[in-house]
Specification:
mainly beta, seven-stranded mixed β-sheet, four-stranded antiparallel β-sheet
């Protein structure tokens, strides 16, 4: 069992930056791949980025490539999402999630992730 808690969301102007954190507790997070998803009002939850348990492999949704960076610090049981050049369309609730290591980080379906945080709101004003 893994518990995930996101933090770092907030209100930022377009072009600004935020860094989201996802703190894991329970079973050590290094045994899981980690992913970030987001959900805007009236829309389905969508994949943003994922990172393999050892930090070697990352994968991004096309719409965040070059702007967002996913990373992790297994010693701190924490995953991060650095978001730069934010746009109003990035406004959403952002969720982190944990997936067993045998599942590919290239699979963008929420169904491959077993554990989810409660989400943190990111609002980008124009």
């Amino acid at each position: 069992q893994v518990q995930l808690v996101e933090s770092g969301g907030g209100l930022v102007q377009a072009g600004g930056s935020l860094r989201l954190s996802c703190a894991a507790s329970g079973r050590t997070s290094s045994t899981y791949n980690m992913g970030w998803f987001r959900q805007a009002p009236g829309k389905e939850r969508e994949f943003v980025a994922a990172i393999k348990w050892n930090g070697v492999t990352t994968y991004y949704a096309e719409f965040v490539k070059g702007r967002f960076t996913i990373s992790r610090d297994n010693a701190k049981n924490t995953a991060y999402l650095q978001m730069n050049s934010l746009k109003p369309e990035d406004t959403a609730v952002y969720y982190c999630a944990a997936s067993p290591t045998y599942r590919s980080v290239l699979n963008v379906s929420p169904s491959v992730y077993d554990y989810w945080g409660q989400g943190t709101q990111v609002t980008v004003s124009s």
